[in-house]
TrEMBL record:
Comment, domains: Consists of three domains: the N-terminal catalytic domain, the anticodon-binding domain and the C-terminal extension.
Organism field: Hadarchaeum yellowstonense
Major enzyme class: ligase
GO terms classed as biological process: prolyl-tRNA aminoacylation
Catalysed reactions, as listed in the record: tRNA(Pro) + L-proline + ATP = L-prolyl-tRNA(Pro) + AMP + diphosphate
Lineage per the UniProt record: Archaea, Methanobacteriati, Candidatus Hadarchaeota, Candidatus Hadarchaeia, Candidatus Hadarchaeales
Gene name as annotated: proS
Pfam families on file: HGTP_anticodon (PF03129), ProRS-C_1 (PF09180), tRNA-synt_2b (PF00587)
Protein name: Proline--tRNA ligase
Superkingdom of the organism of origin: Archaea
Length: 477
């Protein structure tokens, strides 16, 4: 039975408890905004990010690794970028007792670290496109309330991709490819999201425009879980990223960059969890199947031996399985693995041994299924697929319920206040109207949704002109 009361009503408390109880993070590190990955969390992290890595490799991105430190002289070249980040940069000012001549920034993101090197790599059109990515830590002196996995001062798992292209069209196409990659990534994790073009007053520092992916937290706020930026030629101009074209002339390149952090893991944890704790999609669960032997004192049956065999069989089938042979009561073990979100538990008691079967219990629904030993691999795989589908479906339908269409500012404001979630409202697209919509509804403008268009008859609630796009509004994390 799935209960989601605390999950909804005290999401923050639920989230912090689960990080601790399920061995994801230790939040007691004595620096604000910095946290420790514990072993189980680390496994989850690596499984999630290896999928993201694979999606980049499959589309021709190459992995690189740039230094953490960026000289101030290099960092300060792109004016908008600097303005956007200056309040968030940690500076290294000393080496030992020596004061550094040029201060060094701890990267808050790597444009200013990478692009001067790109300038050395790019000579002619034959050197293009460049498509690279790295998964690194970045530092941001966040002033809003810090929160593990969500708002960190050391983002430990920052996947950032950076590209350079000969033409604006190619950069546009790259933005579309990045959207497709992120869509697929979140689809696989079963994390539903909306995609929007950020409003012009809220684009990434140094970008021409930005695209954002947002999901909704159990307490009804929007959480941005990835962004894609078309940088145009802004950085190319200041770092001199030029190539010689077929025309023999020199041209500035066109660039894009896009990033996802461990917020992707926060999103996975929060959209699928319930009052019992984590509930992980099988694809990224560190343990997909846990086997709990249930010995019966008066009866001489080899449950432990059979449990060991079942474990071996599942392991040989490529399933991440674990035999819990600790000297604890089965009930305690059930509770323990439930908190950790293991998708499937296999119980083996004397009766199961006699009948040549096992009893499987689904974490997502609590449903019990009897599986014959001879069908073990095929049936376990099938149940895991059903769990994946069910989690995705459940998350999707609860997400859809949290998106509220509105036609006027008053009802938008009331909906947002009462229901939370995301408001979808027609918009003419003018900046002044957009800002008014955000103000009057007491929400934040996520941007214009890219997957929807307003009814032809829809009007902007501020100026009454025909609506060109749907705006998305929400309270945000
Ligand atoms: N260079 C580009 C890709 C960039 O830095 N974009 S960004 O600033 O929007 O960050 C990308 C994503 O990282 C954000 O959408 C957000 O999901 C995540 N992120 C940003 N700051 C974060 C923080 N302090 N803690 C956790 N995640 C963060
Ligand atoms: Zn308008």
């Amino acid at each position: 039975m799935v209960k989601r009361e605390r999950w909804r009503q005290d999401f923050s408390g639920w989230f912090n408890d689960i990080l601790q109880d399920a061995d994801i993070m230790d939040t007691r590190y004595p620096v604000k905004g910095l946290y420790v990955w514990r072993p189980y969390g680390m496994k989850l992290r690596n499984l999630v990010f290896s999928r993201l890595r694979q999606l980049h490799e499959d589309t021709g991105h190459q992995e690189v690794l740039f230094p953490l430190l960026i000289p101030e002289t290099q960092f300060q070249k792109e004016a908008d970028h600097i303005r956007g980040f200056e309040g968030q940069v940690y500076w290294v000012t000393h080496g030992g007792l020596q004061k550094l001549e040029v201060r060094l920034a701890l990267r808050p993101t790597s444009e200013t670290s990478m692009y001067p090197m790109f300038a050395l790599w790019i000579r002619t059109h034959a050197d293009l496109p460049i498509k690279v990515y790295q998964i690194v830590n970045v530092f941001r002196y966040e002033t809003k309330m810090t929160k593990p996995l969500i708002r960190l001062r050391e983002v430990t798992t920052f996947k950032e991709a950076h590209t350079a292209h000969a033409t604006a069209e190619e950069a546009e196409a790259q933005v579309r490819e990045a959207i497709a990659i992120y869509r697929k990534f979140y689809q696989e994790l079963g994390v539903p999201c909306v995609i929007s073009k950020r409003p012009p007053w809220d684009t990434f520092a140094g970008a021409v425009y930005s695209i954002a992916f947002d999901t909704v937290t159990p307490d009804g706020k929007a959480l941005q879980i990835g962004t894609i930026h078309n940088l145009g030629q802004n950085f190319a101009r200041v770092y001199g990223l030029k190539y010689e074209g077929v025309d023999g002339k020199h041209h500035y390149v066109h660039q894009t960059c896009y990033g996802i952090s461990e917020r992707a893991i926060a999103a996975t944890i929060m959209v699928h969890g319930d009052d019992g704790g984590l509930c992980l999609p099988p694809d990224v669960a560190p343990i997909q199947v846990v086997i709990v032997p249930i010995p019966f004192k008066e009866k001489e049956t080899p449950v432990e031996k059979v449990a060991g065999e079942v474990r071996e069989e599942l392991r040989a089938a490529g399933l991440r399985s674990h035999l819990d042979d600790r000297d604890l009561r089965p009930g305690n073990k059930f509770y323990y693995w439930e908190r950790k979100g293991v998708p499937l538990r296999i119980e083996i008691g004397p009766k199961d041994v006699e009948k040549g079967q096992v009893t499987a219990v689904r974490r997502d629904t609590g449903e019990r299924v009897t599986i014959a030993r001879r069908n073990l691999k095929a049936q376990v795989e099938q149940v895991l697929r059903q769990i994946t589908d069910h989690l995705r479906q459940r998350a999707k339908s609860s997400f859809e319920k949290s998106i509220h269409p509105a036609a006027d500012l008053k009802s938008a404001r009331e909906l947002l206040k009462k229901e939370g979630g995301i408001i979808r409202i027609p918009w003419c697209g003018q900046e002044s109207c957009g800002k008014r919509i955000a103000e009057e509804t007491d929400g934040e403008m996520l941007g214009e949704e890219i997957d929807s268009t307003p009814q032809p008859s829809a009007r902007c609630p501020v100026c009454s002109q025909q609506a060109r796009v749907n705006a998305l509004l929400a309270k945000t994390y």
